[in-house]
């Protein structure tokens, strides 16, 4: 099938299409655990949704994390680099029949697998009409591929942005097709320093999602340039390359698979505030783990930093929180320091010692008690 956009295909794109369209036939053909690096255990409602995905689709899954943000019912979602569609078929169940999922990918052979299994999944989910559309196109040219500006509530992506030679363009396009208040929630591979040309030009390393990994500090910079809120780290896990030849080329560079959330919200000078989560989000009735710093227990007061206060106020989460002015002085139980939240390597190393689900952010107390006086 001819490409539907006039976006110029680069040599890198051709190599990646070959890698995912011809070289790899199944998940076990991968040479590193960059793709498929598990970042955290899957909750039950997601495991149940995944169980309904056809094995021919999951056999060609090459993601590196879990890309299921909360509060998705009725949402319009876009999956950048959907591959054979595993995440699209899972999310189709979470948005429900009234929601919609669009998957875009440049590799036709992967999309063929996804399209071939559309009817199977719609019957399996009991839907009268499909709530998924698969589009062939480039993630650097979303509007050219026919996707409308300001039309998606959430964009997800699972181990794809690293494969693009034009990452700023990907973020810019994502920002443009998101609605105001929308979220880009994505899992990808990051390096501990900027990678040299020798690594970037290595076709297998690039194809394995390592050669094109961004230095995580460059993601923070790019997000700001494009107009997103500062990235919030959700989770991270160390990636290992168990191949001596590739290890020799990589030397001391280290890699993590990390999930970040970026929001399209108005710029301003956000102020910290106290918030109370109402416990109404499906799958997060007792507590909502928002990122690696903040877990909101239902009905408890939590002081959040200004950035997060702005995100909660302007995004789809606004209806699930009550907002209050901050306490006068928050002393030791106040807003958490940012350093750990920004460095996925530090977080990934800490992960085995302290499970993310056991941490709570800000200062907590019951709804009726006063916080940090
Ligand atoms: C590592 S696989 C991940 C696929 C899928 N997200 C999954 O979890 O199985 C990368 C996918 O991204 C697609 N891809 C890479 N670069 C792309 C680009 N610039 N535009 C569109 N698709 C791209 C590839 O064709 C491939 O299907």
From TrEMBL:
GO terms for molecular function: arsenite methyltransferase activity. Residues 73-227 form the Methyltransferase domain. Its EC number is 2.1.1.137. GO terms for cellular component: cytosol. GO terms for biological process: arsonoacetate metabolic process; toxin metabolic process. It catalyses: arsenic triglutathione + 3 [thioredoxin]-dithiol + 3 S-adenosyl-L-methionine = trimethylarsine + 3 [thioredoxin]-disulfide + 3 glutathione + 3 S-adenosyl-L-homocysteine + 3 H(+); arsenic triglutathione + [thioredoxin]-dithiol + S-adenosyl-L-methionine + 2 H2O = methylarsonous acid + [thioredoxin]-disulfide + 3 glutathione + S-adenosyl-L-homocysteine + H(+); arsenic triglutathione + 2 [thioredoxin]-dithiol + 2 S-adenosyl-L-methionine + H2O = dimethylarsinous acid + 2 [thioredoxin]-disulfide + 3 glutathione + 2 S-adenosyl-L-homocysteine + 2 H(+). PANTHER family: ARSENITE METHYLTRANSFERASE (PTHR43675:SF9). Belongs to the methyltransferase superfamily. Arsenite methyltransferase family. This is Arsenite methyltransferase. It comes from Hippocampus comes (Tiger tail seahorse). The lineage of its organism: Eukaryota, Metazoa, Chordata, Craniata, Vertebrata.
